[in-house]
Design goal:
The protein is of the alpha+beta class. It is 38% helix and 25% strand. The strands form two sheets. A six-stranded antiparallel sheet has the order 1-5-6-3-2-4. A four-stranded antiparallel sheet has the order 7-8-9-10, with no helix packed on it. Helix 3 packs antiparallel against helix 7. It is found in: Bacterial flagellum basal body; Cell membrane.
């Protein structure tokens, strides 16, 4: 994002070129020169761009679910969207948030470790004001939260777990539990200061109040599911899913396909002359002995042996033996 210029910076650059403050030829020379990028080993990038994009997609869905949830709970205009997804040391994240804020700590079972959702006090108190019947005005008094206010806010943010669980369901089935609600980041040490974390910043607007909700995901927590965050894995999973669905559809169609099942009492060969002379009461001799099993044909193929009988006053046969395929081709 540092290489992308804003419209104001572009206008200033064009203005400097037109007034002669900057020389276009010098800029071209700088572009041709070999550029060296400084790498900070204290700020190791442990998530690939592919994984960052996957996390962004997951939390875009989470932002939509949160918008629906908070709109229903607060009964006012709520808009939440992902503004940035960055990876940085945990210590740097803690320094970037207010000294007194709302910190919701979650345990994302079956993953080991803890996740953090930091809610700006402006947003948190606008939510509290709406829940208590107000217009959603923000009054920052996070340093002296009452027990009732703490309880109300805990219940409100505890229900965001369901939205988080749904957003992550495409990657892993989580069963997160809210562990605690803190107000002072200095008392919260989830991971070591140098541990790399991904911070998803959600721009939040409630009525006329705006602020940020930051979700902190430590690398050590997501490490075992990082392969699942790659596009290649998702494509493979979708391909497997489509293949399994196609196989299931074929199996269902085969199961519902009609088959002709015939039980043969026996066979006999007669001439056309004898056939033309048949009448009521005539007897046809079959090649089937009375003590031999009947043949049951499925789709014209001999599949079972059976014995004749009755069931509920209906003529029926009882399967006594399954004919092996080897016997069929003998």
């Amino acid at each position: 994002m540092a290489d992308v210029l804003s419209q104001g910076e572009i206008d200033a650059l064009l203005s400097a070129l037109s007034t002669g403050e900057m020389n276009a030829d010098e800029l071209k020379k700088e572009e041709n020169e070999k550029k060296v990028k400084v790498y900070d080993f204290k700020r190791a990038l442990r998530f690939s761009k592919d994984q960052i994009r996957s996390l962004s997609r997951i939390h875009e869905n989470f932002a939509r679910l949160l918008t629906t949830y908070f709109s229903a709970q607060l009964r006012t205009y709520v808009q939440i969207s992902v503004t940035s997804v960055d990876q940085l040391p945990y210590e740097e994240f803690i320094r970037s948030i207010p000294k007194m804020t709302i910190l919701n700590v979650f345990e994302p079972y079956p993953l080991e470790g803890r996740l953090l959702m930091e809610v700006n006090p402006n947003i948190a108190y606008a939510m509290l004001d709406r829940l208590l019947g107000g217009r959603g005005v923000s009054i920052n008094k996070v340093e002296n939260l009452t027990e009732i206010e703490t309880r109300i806010m805990t219940q409100l943010f505890q229900r965001t777990i369901d939205s988080f669980q749904v957003a992550w369901s495409s990657v892993i089935e989580l069963d997160p539990v809210m562990e605690d609600l803190e107000v002072n980041p200095q008392f919260l040490q989830m991971v070591s200061p140098n541990e790399t974390v991904v911070v998803i910043s959600l721009s939040t607007t409630i009525a006329e109040t705006s602020g940020m909700i930051n979700i902190c995901l430590p690398h050590v927590v997501l490490e075992e599911i990082l392969p699942k965050l790659s596009v290649h894995y998702w494509m493979q999973e979708k391909k497997k899913q489509r293949l399994s669905e196609e196989i299931e559809n074929i199996e269902n169609k085969i199961r519902r396909a009609p088959l002709i099942v015939q039980a043969e009492l026996g066979r006999s060969e007669i001439s056309i002359q004898e056939f033309l002379q048949l009448g009521v009461g005539d007897v046809i001799e079959l090649n089937q002995a009375i003590d031999k099993p009947l043949s049951v044909l499925v789709g014209g193929e001999h599949k079972f042996n059976a014995q004749p009988g009755k069931m509920k006053n209906q003529i029926a046969v009882q399967v006594t033996e399954i004919v092996e395929e080897a016997n069929e081709h003998e």
